[in-house]
Amino acid sequence: MDLRHIRYFIAVAEELNMRRASIRLHISQPPLTRQIQQLEDELGVQLFIRTPRGMELTQAGELFLAEARNIHSVVEQATERTQRAGQGKLGKLDIGIFGSGILDTIPKLLLAFRNTHPDVKIVLHNMNKDEQIEALRQRRIDAGFNRFITPSSDISNELVITEKLLLAVNENHPLARETIVPFHCLANHPLILFPTGSRPNFVDKVMSMCEKAGFIPQVAQEVGDTVTGVALVASNFGVCLVPESASVLALPGVIYRALSEEPDNAQVDLSCIYRTDDRSPILSSFLEIVRDFRTRRTP
Question: What is the pTM of this model?
Fold first, then answer.
């Protein structure tokens, strides 16, 4: 028995007339009659009673009609779900997250993707950069978000956004009186750095900026993440350079100040990383959202 037999049987059972059923199915009547006879032979039961007025279903035929409709519905649903999966509209996306991007940019991306792909389940995993790359290679996640990615042949890097750097200061700190803080002024104030962990990272970026500005910073503390760094600023433990997305952290006593144009590299990239050989339609759809987001945010 094949699906064609099911479809033909349903048409004949609903029309109870071979001619009308053949018109509905866009086939001639003799082949349709043969298909119904083959189905009855295969099942070993009579499905229809031929009468002078047309056809009637036998008791077995009525039972088989209910089952055939169920089978047809299941096949249609399976076909639709398979097509949606092939189009990247159904399935699951595992994403590694870490750092200040989760405070602003990443939630906006995830919301944009969910709005256009509501049937794709998004599962988030809190992982640092090394953990994300290892999880990608082990196929435990499909994508990750991080900064300062070292190029490799098996991991691709899609730029999401380039952010300005801001200075987080306590409202009672002398630099809080400045609308725009000259970068070289940081030489005279304890600096909180983040994150600890694998290099290169944001710490290396800040140290390089200080070197270009001609000073070695007074490091008050090196912490694991943005939130901890800003929390220490709230306690007046020092000042902290942060990506612009971190300014959504409205901790009591903390304000954010722009930096002067020195040095000219006072910005940082956020990237989406994924396996170079991943041909998943869901990942492809997600990367389209990332690229669209970048295009709309680029001046």
Answer: 0.72
